[in-house]
Design goal:
2 copies of one chain form a homodimer. The first copy, chain A, has 446 residues and is an alpha+beta fold. Chain A contains 12 helices and 21 strands. Chains A and B meet through strand 1, strand 2, helix 4, strand 9 and strand 10 of A and strand 1, strand 2, helix 4, strand 9 and strand 10 of B.
């Protein structure tokens, strides 16, 4: 009988092994993909692509062992043996003088790369980049984008664990429709009508009744019909929801603390990618908070712009609010609070001092909404009353109302669009740049 | 202008604050839900439910401040002030002698709990428990189940980060269908035909070409028509995929090491829940691995059972294989390797020494499949040939085949059913017990 006992020690090493040990002059074995081959007439550079970065290998003669440089192809994966040689001009400050090559796999016969992935920046249209996404992501700059995104999610989770939040996994196939409106995907579910979840709203509130504080980082689905630079039909929502709050300000405080942790984490754990992408990490220690109506008035005055609709914020107004707080307070972020009730869902708590407004907020980052949050109604009577006032039938929401009926703490929470916050952090112009495999009205593949 | 600066210090404290500091005889302020009230004639116990556990509060007179014990209701949330008093018979070894109560919220008027959530174990049918899930989860034992599940996912991720895996987020709305078969949910997507992803298979392989090693913990969707104790229509799949492998054994080694880490992590970080649920953490340092055909022969001989179909494993056979390896090797786990090609998907690599079988495996845990994994075909020519041999049109998979065309390292991976592994760890009889909000043929709510 064979037994599986866990990881075996292997001869093959990684870039970090070379950097953290003094292996100068030593022989090492590495594996990687042939990223590019450069013929220098006297010798050739074979640049290996590994998850950590690039490794310059020097192919001194025509042949190394039995492999001829003429037969080596970009896109092959190889195992190389060679001596570590310090070289300041090489990535990571070293190169490998090859003494042995073993080909592990090869691309299809007689194919060439449709885009030059080894270039620093892919100078192709977004359309081409997305159509060739499986290959385009092999570009060093492209893949750094999604390492940064990984870092944001890791830090989000780590911070919330430290604040006693519990991670939950809520269903994506649902019977009801939390956010209202028409932008919901319909599904056939064994003869029943079902939807894809637009948000984990009902479930995260439910779980506050169980664990006091919860979070989830998971996909949500919106059947938005407009193809804009900031909308996706499937995106990752970073949600948290917390009980026993004194007011919706507690939620903003938690988000500000979380964001500070995230950017600190990126500066430490993702320093390589932060540098590679030239990211300036924003300051979140002092984020201005302004009422919705006041924000509208401020930009209307400063930028001489008429207020068309006092109950809605147009994307252009968001941009101007972002500009105002950058100019006046040097802040990339601004909390806009007290959104009008008619623009917020039925579970939003109205401001008791003026019920035309809600105890809610958006967070704008460089002039774009990246978070929506607020306090929720927690009593059964208030929630039923607001549903009825909106012409909704509480009987349609009996599972949800179960939590209010049997007692909920004062609570609230928020949802953050992961792809959007990544987009603004990287100063990208289109959210598809920071979405691994975007889904929009016209794009369902790859 | 107001500014948000991060977390504010609050007077309210948590159970862990009391346990980690010596607060005996000190006055503290706590918030929680009224879990149960017990009238002891001379005084009353008011038991608070908090995310960390229960707190026994002693309500000495009829009234504390202005709140009468007669008006205090289960399901209310309250803020209490009182003195910490050591009491061995109370949860966590202390109680609070109340001097002040403030009611934060109340349940609906004239309602009572439909199930006794403060009982140690809910002695109701699974059907009732699931219908009342939003409330039933407030039971201390029920919520411990999903803390354990949180711990499994955390440890899965932490271990893989330490092994240089990158976390990816792949789309759940897809155009193609990786696993084949009829069990796929259809979706209307702006006039196009779309599906819910049965697995992240194509995308995780794609991302191996980018990051060498990747993982994802996310929902997958299977339109299984059979309502069994082990099937769900939506579940969480813990997937990883790794490049530059020497063989599929590397994947089993990685899984065994990961599982050891998971159970070690649970014993340290979730000791309270492990104890509360009476979990015996299994040993994974020495997992037997047996060929599919050999496993069938062994149980056929030992348990005197005819082999009906040499190319398939029935659930009953899985149970017997689990029993065999428990009896013969005292192992809760067994890897079954070399599954027949006709039972594995088109991307599975055949065993070159006998192409009727594949370089693949399942992991059985107490007689149930909890993982499916294996090596994948990495060359374009081999992948196209296997598709054609199966009557598939490679043109339907051009986006997927892009990765093989332009070069992939030898690679493989696996998918683990989170709810199933939790179920077997807890010795539950139905996977719905370990699913937060299960989706099955007849259950779409809550």
């Amino acid at each position: 009988m064979e037994f599986v006992k866990g990881l075996k020690q292997k001869e093959v090493i990684e870039i970090s092994d070379i950097l953290s040990n003094d292996l100068k002059g030593k022989e090492v074995v590495l594996r990687g993909a042939v990223h590019t081959i450069r013929d220098m007439s006297e010798f050739s550079f074979v640049v290996l692509r590994k998850y950590e970065g690039l490794v310059q290998c020097v192919f001194v003669n025509d042949k190394v062992n039995n492999v001829s440089i003429k037969n080596l192809r970009e896109g092959s994966t190889i195992e190389v043996k060679g001596m570590v040689h310090p070289e300041d001009r090489a990535p990571n400050g070293f190169e490998i003088i090859l003494s042995d090559i073993k080909v592990l796999s090869e691309p299809a016969k007689e194919t060439t790369m449709p885009i030059p992935i080894s270039k620093w920046k892919l100078n192709t249209s977004l359309e081409t980049k997305l159509s060739l996404r499986p290959i385009a992501l092999r570009n060093v700059r492209e893949r750094a984008i999604f390492k940064i995104q990984e870092g944001i999610v890791r830090a989000f989770r780590d911070f919330l664990y430290s604040q006693h939040f519990t991670e939950v996994r809520t269903p994506k196939i649902v019977a009801g429709n939390a956010e209202g409106g028409a932008n919901v995907f319909k599904l056939e579910y064994f003869g029943k009508k079902a939807f894809l979840a637009q948000s984990p709203q009902f479930y995260k509130q439910t779980m506050v009744g169980v664990y006091d504080r919860v979070f989830e980082a998971a996909p949500v689905f919106r059947a938005e019909k407009h193809n804009t630079t900031r909308h996706l039909n499937e995106y990752t929502s970073l949600d948290f929801e917390m009980g026993y709050i004194d007011g919706f300000e507690d939620i903003m405080d938690m988000e500000a603390a979380m964001l500070s942790y995230v950017f600190e984490f990126l500066s430490k754990e993702y320093a390589k990618e932060v540098k590679l992408l030239g990211i300036t990490l924003p300051d979140t220690s002092n984020i201005p908070a302004v009422r919705f109506d006041e924000a509208k008035r401020l930009v209307s005055e400063k930028y001489d712009r008429k207020i068309k609709n006092p109950y809605d914020l147009e994307p252009e107004e968001e941009v101007l609010i972002g500009r105002y707080f950058k100019e006046e307070f040097n802040s990339d972020f601004v909390f806009v609070t007290h959104y009008p009730s008619k623009k917020r869902p039925f579970y939003a708590m109205d401001d008791p001092s003026d019920t035309k407004f809600t105890l809610s907020f958006d967070l704008l980052f460089k002039g774009m909404e990246v978070t929506t949050g607020g306090q929720r109604i927690h009593t059964y009577e208030d929630q039923v009353a607001k549903m009825v006032a909106r012409g909704m039938d509480p009987a349609d929401f009996s599972d949800y109302l179960m939590i209010h009926k049997h007692g909920m703490p004062p609570h609230g929470g928020l949802g953050i669009g992961l792809e959007r916050i990544t987009m603004k952090l990287l100063d990208e112009q289109n959210v598809r740049e920071t979405t691994l495999f975007p889904r929009d009205v016209s794009r369902l593949e790859p």
